[in-house]
Amino acid sequence: MGKMTVYHGGYTAVKKPKIIKGKNTKDFGPGFYCTIIREQAERWAMRYDTPVVSTYTVRMNTELKFVSSREVTL
């Protein structure tokens, strides 16, 4: 399985992220949002008084099933 580094920008360090069902108020629904672009996580964290970027090494599970989104033309 391949590994990759991802980043999460926020106001506190998140040592063990949990994906909890919740209200569908985010762009892509409930979840724990990360990026492979550190600068993007840094910009997101700067919105807070105590900016923190958490870093994770993720091992991809090849048994996961992915659902592709459909394109929408406006």
Overview of this protein structure:
This protein is α+β, with helices and mostly antiparallel strands and 74 residues long. The protein has one domain. Helices cover 11% and strands 22% of the residues. It has 1 helix and 2 strands. It is globular, with a radius of gyration of 14 Å. The mean pLDDT is 81.
Topology at a glance:
Blueprint: E1 3-10, H1 38-45, E2 52-59
Antiparallel strand pairs: 1-2
Task: Please tag this protein with its features.
alpha+beta; 74 residues; two-stranded antiparallel ribbon; 11% helix
Question: What is the gist of this entry?
Answer:
The protein is α+β, with helices and mostly antiparallel strands and 74 residues long. It has one helix at residues 38-45; strands at residues 3-10, 52-59.
Helix content: 10-25%
What does the largest sheet look like?
2 strands, antiparallel
For the secondary structure, the number of strands is 2
Tally of individual helices? 1
The helix-and-strand class reads alpha+beta
Mean pLDDT: 81
The Rg value, from CA coordinates, equals 14 Å
Shape: globular
* Strands in their spatial order, largest beta sheet: 1-2
Instruction: Note poorly predicted spans.
Output: none
